[in-house]
Design goal:
Hypothetical Protein Mth938, Chain: A, 5-stranded mixed β-sheet, 4-stranded antiparallel β-sheet, about 30% strand, globular
């Protein structure tokens, strides 16, 4: 796994590493896709970008999130326009990137105390 740990305040959910099958977040191993916020990491029941829907991301709607980083796996994939619009209507800007970039960017934005979440598919 690739280490992506910046200096983060204690008590935050930081992505320690990622790999082909899952993630380590704040010292805990997760297999498969996950959604990470500053205070929680949960298993995410999607297996590909095609499974990503407004409903699959609804767990974020009651949180104060302004940026959603969508880790698409090994390579960047475009976010469907209707998903982008639906999230924007909820006040969330989505930014898609490969999973490694999403993990690193999430950690940086978390360190800056931004209102960020990451929805991450394994890297490959």
């Amino acid at each position: 796994m690739t280490d992506v740990t910046p200096l983060i305040p204690a008590g935050r959910q930081v992505v320690d590493s990622y790999g082909r099958k899952g993630f380590h977040v704040s010292g805990v191993a997760y297999e498969g896709a996950i959604v990470v916020t500053a205070d929680a990491t949960v298993a995410w029941r999607v297996t590909s970008l095609a499974d990503v829907t407004v409903e699959s991301l609804s767990l974020l709607f009651d949180r104060d999130i302004e940026i959603l980083l969508l880790g698409c796996g090994a390579r960047l994939m475009p976010v469907p326009g209707e998903l982008r619009v639906a999230l924007r209507q909820k006040g969330i800007v989505v930014d898609a990137m490969d999973t490694g970039a999403a993990c690193r960017t999430y950690n940086v934005l978390l360190a800056e105390e931004r209102r960020v979440a990451a929805a991450l598919l394994p890297a490959g």
